[in-house]
Amino acid sequence: MGQDQTKQQIEKGLHLYQSNQTEKALRVWMRVLEKSADPAGRFRVLGCLITAHAEMGRYKDMLKFAVVQIDTARELEDPDYLTESYLNLARSNEKLCEFQKTISYCKTCLNMQGTTVSLQLNGQVSLSMGNAFLGLSIFQKALECFEKALRYAHNNDDKMLECRVCCSLGNFYTQIKDYEKALFFPCKAAELVNDYGKGWSLKYRAMSQYHMAVAYRKLGRLADAMDCCEESMKIALQHGDRPLQALCLLCFADIHRSRRDVQLGLLKLHCLCETIYRTKGQQQELRDHVVKFHECVEEMELYCGMCGESIGEKNNQLQALPCSHFFHLKCLQTNGARGCPNCRRSSVKPGYV
Q1: Ranked by mean pLDDT, which of 106-120, 167-181, 235-249 comes out on top?
Q2: Helix axis angle, 116-135 relative to 159-175, nearest 10°?
Q3: Which helix (H) or strand (E) holds 326?
Q4: What is the DSSP secondary structure assignment for residue 113, as one 8-state letter?
Q5: Which of 18, 98, 231, 284 could form a disulfide with 93, with the two C-beta atoms 3.0–4.6 Å apart?
Q6: Collapsed DSSP state (helix, strand, coil) of residue 266
Q7: Where does the RING-type domain start and stop, copy by copy (predicted)?
């Protein structure tokens, strides 16, 4: 496969990948890798494979292709290619939580000064190093790296890099429990996506929405957290971004736990008040708390929408529908194809949110 054919096949793979036909794109790129005699083309297709496997959460494969890319860069004897390949090696180790190795490879990148690519990539190298320091809980060095990356982004008018750094800063401030700043930075990232992101991958929007969801949850703004997390999950599902899907599921669990903790407290309060007022014979107060108790039960959906019986009082098996509503398994099995009675969706296939 010659140079021109290699370029055409790489572009074909990119088109397939952007159309969410990931497996087809991977097959095209693997054929290029096997058949191309053009080292520069092989280097580029390895970069495509590294990015794709990173977004699918296949980090060991990502590392495997990064190692091959290093060998290809050495074959080309070009310092620009070598700098880029070391950055991909650093990112691969970052994803695998090999943070010391990430820092080491990032320092190698920064030491390769004087090349055009190294100057362009310094901001991305600083970002990856900052993420590694954050993974090691070395907060001061992490912040210094993020600030350095942000300066590179501003000096080079690199909005994509600025967006990524803002998301990492959101994660940083979440970990040190400064939740106002943890919200500010991903909100800034979301603004950048809205203003400049028409030609960007939707992953930037998904990334900013996820970090906003985490901050909103920490601040107790659970409705806002749910909206952002749902938006992020929707994009992650469309693009097969399994790592982000996993993060969103964890965030959903945290939101529901936070919401349920408050509501269970209210439920127990109304139940206790009902007992007290019933004992005292104060009928009006008793009726008020009975109504509020049942409102809590309705809101928390602590009943089976098919048979009407309470959920949790007996040791019955439960099942969730794709719409997230829970029912007795025996009720679902006898329901046929009539759909969810809570939201009237037609699908009754059990699954997860």
Answers
A1: 167-181
A2: 20
A3: strand 326-328
A4: T
A5: 98
A6: helix
A7: 304-344
- Strand (E) or helix (H) holding 320: strand 318-320
Residue 145 near residue 133, CB atoms below 8 Å: yes
Residue type (1 letter), 238: Q
| Predicted confidence (pLDDT) per residue in 43-55, tens digit | 999 999 998 888 8
pTM for the model:
0.71
Burial level of 86, CB count in 10 A (0-12/13-18/19+)? buried
Are 186 and 215 in contact by the 8 Å Cβ rule? The answer is yes
d(CA 50, CA 73): 15
Cβ distance 58 to 22 under 8 Å?
A: no
- Of the chain, the end-to-end C-alpha distance in Å amounts to 45
CA 88, distance to chain mean position in Å, is 20
Task: Give the Cα separation of 52 and 18 in Å (integer).
Answer: 11
Check if the beta carbon of residue 311 is closer than 8 Å to that of residue 303.
yes
* Token pair recorded at residue 145: 């790296």
Q: Residue 339 corresponds to which amino acid?
A: G
Which residue in 105, 99, 100 sits closest to 82, CA to CA? 105
Residue 146 corresponds to which tokens in the numbers above? 């993020």
Alpha-carbon span 88 to 70, nearest angstrom = 9
Residue 174 in this model has a pLDDT that exceeds 90: yes
pLDDT at 232: 92
Give the separation between CA 166 and CA 268, rounded to whole angstroms: 41
Give the residues across from 327 on adjacent strands.
319
Amino acid residing at 286:
L
Q: What is the dihedral of CA 50, 137, 139, 122, to 10 degrees?
A: -20
What is the rounded CA–CA span in Å between residue 327 and residue 291? 23
User: What SS3 class is residue 319?
Assistant: strand
CA–CA gap between residue 270 and residue 290 (Å, rounded): 7
Contact 285, 273 (CB under 8 A): yes
- Interatomic CA distance for residues 122 and 90, integer angstroms: 13
Residue in 76, 87, 68, 83 with CA at minimum distance from that of residue 30: 68
What is the rounded CA–CA span in Å between residue 184 and residue 216? 10
